[in-house]
Amino acid sequence: MLIAACGARQKPPPAKPDPKQLAANVFATKTMMADIVHRRRGDCTNMAVELNALAKAMRRQFAEVRKAELDPDVAKQVVQEMNTYADRVAELDQKIVDDLATCKADQNVLNVVLAMPEL
User: Fold this and answer.
1) What's the 3-state SS for 88-108?
2) Which of 6, 15, 32, 37 could bridge 99 with an S-S bond, Cβ 3.0-4.6 Å?
3) Dist. CA 79–CA 29, nearest whole Å
4) For residue 53, how far is the Cα from the chain centroid?
5) What is the pLDDT of residue 75?
């Protein structure tokens, strides 16, 4: 009777985000970006369209990471997990730059790239 009088039980706190999964998701997004710019190399119109769609997903994903990083312990773990991808990310970044260069004069690609979210 006491529980009924005091109201419903409190919900358990939400589970902490998994830093390993967050880092893996960010790396997967970087891989998708590299794939898009490579597949659409020279096809600037479609490159811009696909990068724009990816940017929307990245905004949501990066917002999750930022929210998780409000917890200092989780933030440290996320950085550690992201560091495990550092060499591969540097390699992908160079490939992305090389492939983006095929559309460096396309204003739509430039606009999308400049608006891409960053962590």
Assistant:
1) HHHHHHHHHHHHHHHHCCCHH
2) 37
3) 17
4) 12
5) 94
**CA-CA distance, 4 to 94, in Å (whole number)?**
62
Residues 51/57/62/67 CA torsion (nearest 10 deg): 160
Q: Where are the beta strands (DSSP E) in the chain?
A: none
Residue with tokens 């608006």: 115
Indicate the pTM of the whole model.
0.83
Retrieve residue 29's tokens. Answer: 């997004």
Angle, alpha carbons 27-30-32 (nearest 5°): 110
Tell me the per-residue pLDDT of 72-86, one tens digit each, with 9 for 90 and over. Answer: 999 999 999 999 999
Rg of the chain over all Cα atoms, to the nearest angstrom: 20
What distance in Å separates the CA atoms of residue 6 and residue 8, rounded to the nearest whole number? 7
Rounded average pLDDT over 85-107: 96
pLDDT digits (tens, 9 = 90+) for 55-68: 999 999 999 999 99
Give the tokens for residue 12.
């358990």
